[in-house]
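Kindly draft a polypeptide, keeping tokens residue-aligned:

***
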Amino acid sequence: MQSSLPLTIDRAAGLPLHLQLAEQFRAAVLDGRLQAGHRLPSTRDLARELGVSRSVTQAAYDQLHAEGWIEGRTGAGTFVTDVVPLQPVVRRRPAHRPDADAKLLTLRPGIPYIAPTPDPGWRRAWREVSTQSPPRGYDDAAGLPALRAALADHVARVRGIACGPENVLVTNGTVHGLRLLLTVTRQPGDRIAIEDPGYLNAVVAARDHRLEIVDVPVDEDGLQVDALTEAAAVYVTPSHQYPLGGRLPVARRNELVRWARRTGSLLIEDDYDSEFRYDVAPLPALAQLDLERVVHLGTLSKTLSPALRLGWLVASEAMVDRLATFRADSGDWPGWPMQAAMLAMLRDGYLDQAVRRGRRMYADRRTHTCAVLSPYGQIVGQDAGLHITLLLPDDADDLRIAAAAREAGVVVAPLSEYRRTVPGPPGLVIGYATPSTSDLHRALTTLTEILSRR
């Protein structure tokens, strides 16, 4: 039915009648059909015109009055307020752009192989989470207490760090832990030493926090401690220098900790893929030498999946308390379902199984990759991790080679991307974990064809 106002009732519509009226009224004001100062019929009269109960029109008027569209004047009636029509912003949806790399074979480093179907251990963990009720309120900002205890046992067993739950903080991964640490402990202008070449995301994090970056050269054993100058913090990858693969020997580790104690510097240990060694067992983590001076960062990104966005930070109890207090105010910590699943995977032994399975598979892939690429340069970093680095002759242009590979359907990272100020040979950083075995063969065949034409 229709009234003297531009309002109609559609009883077949799913929207309640009073909301229909309010919505039509707003539209009439915005398009100028109802002007400011227009006197409205009473709720009784409008209900009679529309053939509805007075409670419907009264509810519509109440809603419009609350929103400021109409006002009542004592002894005069109800009127349209002076609402200036506002033209809505027209948002043009950008054309969908498909991922340019989606159809390419990738040899990018740092991403594990993800099987097309989940295995039983993965499914068991999520079934266990589905049977639990979530916490009644906000959970602990440092992480689920049971998960922190399980992680303390885990890093003590596999990385030699003597710690308890009070030393563990659950993170969304290595970069999240690093950024949290820089936010809480560093001030703009502080100096941070970072390996060169080194991890790009660590450099970006330092720049975002307006820190002064000190580039430190590396050699076949990792960070050159004797090249360190004054810095408030040092970011280092001692178990498998990223991207060249050096392993910081014991003598140099001790020298680095002594340097940090002498200067008061904070050592940030990124232990991103120490689980995967193919020659000998990994050296104990740097943090086991001095948990007061070292903050240890671990992640599931290389063992299970970067999509989990889960990791851990191990530090002194005072540091963990400080970081947790900040997170309690910012609300920035991993959600309960992900933490509960991670706990289930640790208790069930699924993480250990995934590491053992991955170590066997990646060792075979590493051997094949090295055999295929060794004629084209010097291979370094092959003893661990999910990638090798192929050092090319000095006259090679790794950026041009990477571009040619992409044109041929293969994504590979040029070593030049990881260098900043310290000179060194060109090269390619080649991840062998991500593709299937057949795709790895295809990608390496394409790459060798390009290297042969160099």
About this structure: DSSP finds 13 helices and 17 strands in the chain.
